Amino acid sequence: MNVNFQQLRAFAAVARYGSFTRASQALFTTQSALSSRVAQLEESVGARLFDRTTRTVRLTAVGRDVRPAVERILGEIDALVGRTKDISAGIAGRIVIAALPSVSATVLPQTISAFVRKYPRISIILRDELAERIADMVRNDEVDFAVSSPIVGDNQLDFVLLATDHMAAIFPKRHPLRKAKRLKLEQLVDYPVILMDRKSSVRRVVDEALRVKGRLPQPAYEVAFMSTAIGLVRAGLGVTVLPTASLEVQSASDLARRNFSDRVLTRRIGILKRQGGSLGPAAQSFAAFLVQSFKAHAGWHASDGR
Amino acid sequence: MNVNFQQLRAFAAVARYGSFTRASQALFTTQSALSSRVAQLEESVGARLFDRTTRTVRLTAVGRDVRPAVERILGEIDALVGRTKDISAGIAGRIVIAALPSVSATVLPQTISAFVRKYPRISIILRDELAERIADMVRNDEVDFAVSSPIVGDNQLDFVLLATDHMAAIFPKRHPLRKAKRLKLEQLVDYPVILMDRKSSVRRVVDEALRVKGRLPQPAYEVAFMSTAIGLVRAGLGVTVLPTASLEVQSASDLARRNFSDRVLTRRIGILKRQGGSLGPAAQSFAAFLVQSFKAHAGWHASDGR
DNA sequence: CGATCTTACGGGATTCGTAAACATA
DNA sequence: TATGTTTACGAATCCCGTAAGATCG
């Protein structure tokens, strides 16, 4: 036979009250029910748990040994259903999200900080990765959702736009390009170009724009971190294309920056999740926070939903 | 509604196999049974635990959050019944015993050491106390049993004789008493007498003997530890009466010792337990060990059973 | 003899399993 | 269309509660 909760509760109550009758009152049941529940439990574990006469009920040695474990299990069950209800209510839980480095460094820290202040029993794990890996993580359910760019042509994934981020050419202040007010991408081909890693969202946007234009120059350098690209520019080794909202660009005041006239050269940032995979309550709350954060955050061009 | 184990097992199995059908095979039940068990559990906790289409079953965020707790509870249940069976079989458990200081210092250490070598999963807690407090502990079920002297006239307690221990007079080697081969208790009255605390078993034996003789001298000193009594004797402050099996007496080779001719002056040592309180399997094994130990131990006059 | 646990037994609720309905890749 | 989940429903089971029986103080 199979031990069940009622049996454990019966055992715990009888042990606590030292009497079947009193325990049955506390449990709002009859004492005969308790009698058989305890008997069943004793049968299951193959040992007598109480020494009982008509007048007195006391734990056997085995019963005494087992009691702490039983009490702990009952406590954990209560904690479990309590916690589950809290999770459903969105006041407890654990969220795992992935985000692009540029987002992880700008909006997210403040969002997380405000969020955990409001929901101290929700823990958040942030994984900053490049766009390609992020897509994998979302597909494999390694994260609840991601903050990233949309993956074109992948209808396994849902995307909700939160903000757009314009690309800009970054070059030394004395560079010939400084004369233009606004640039076209083609104008860069005459100079050595520093581009981001092919796995990055920035590179995807640039490659897409180049494909449209039909011109596909080899980059002079290909780097993983924006700070590296900026370092190379500073050293006079070329021109790079980076999103203006990134912390790296914002803080590179010693370099010149020109926006592009092309509309293609904007990176779309939003919530990326598996299609059909419903967000948990905690994740939903966090997503709502994110929307507000993008609106409040200078440097990002917020977009409301759609 | 009340959550039960079947539901938790169903949840865990479906989560592990990612399929109701495969889980039902593993659990030797039908998949419709699992379906309703999971549905009930979801009802109980008020949250959907799986996102399921006909083709795929995967945990929701809530389900993912609760899974570890559920797995842990199931593990603990298994551990509980496993452990309980071990306890019934006498290969695991916890024994609490009380013993007189003289026993705690002589036979018990070796007994315990041999016992835990044979039963490493049984833990033993030894409490050394004086006879009076020991009786209380046994009565109040604070210990599984005790190794002590019998309490006369208390039929709440069961006593099984293990050994007898003869009392001896202890005095400096140059003391007048050295001339006698064997003593009678009366011979001590002429000297200052050092007796043990009234709560001790030694004192009870002496008092009982004195009561029979009808002579009740005031002790010159009354001490709690045998080593103190021996110290006082060494200092020439009087004569004392101690059990010969005690470590203190054995090692006091600089003092003289004379046995008494009175049979009353023997202390009976044995297992003391609540009447009706059955010993657990572990405690029974230990008691069996004790019997052997007393036989093997030099200094104690073993007795087999009753 | 009274308080309290156990046992017996009938009725009610729960749960199971078969089979049909339903949904998705 | 095929696989896999849900739903429906009759049947078996389990469990509770009443009441009688047993036992200890």
Helix share, percent of chain A? 40-55%
Radius of gyration of chain A: 31 Å
Distance between the termini of chain A: 56 Å
How large is the share of residues in beta strands of chain A?
Answer: 15-25%
The CATH level-2 architecture of the largest domain in chain A is identified as: 3-Layer(aba) Sandwich
Number of strands of chain A: 12
Query: Could you give a short account of the major beta sheet of chain A?
Result: 10 strands, mixed
The rough form of chain A would be described as: rod-shaped
> H/E series of chain A, N to C?
HHHEEHEHHEHEEEHEHEHEEHE
Structural class of chain A: alpha/beta
User: CATH class of the largest domain in chain A, anyone?
Assistant: Alpha Beta
Overall number of structural domains of chain A:
3
Output the number of helix runs of chain A: 11
What oligomeric state is this? homodimer
The CATH superfamily label of the largest domain in chain A reads Periplasmic binding protein-like II
Concise summary:
2 copies of one chain form a homodimer. The first copy, chain A, is built from 11 helices and 12 strands.
Describe this structure in words.
The structure is a homodimer of 306-residue chains. With 306 residues, chain A is α/β, with parallel strands linked by helices. Chain A is 43% helix and 22% strand. In chain A, the strands form two sheets. In chain A, strands 3, 4, 5, 6, 7, 8, 9, 10, 11 and 12 form a ten-stranded mixed sheet that branches. In chain A, strands 1-2 form a two-stranded antiparallel sheet. The two termini of chain A are 56 Å apart. The mean pLDDT of chain A is 89. At the A-B interface, helix 4, strand 3 and helix 11 of A face helix 4 and helix 11 of B. The structure holds a DNA duplex (25 and 25 nucleotides).
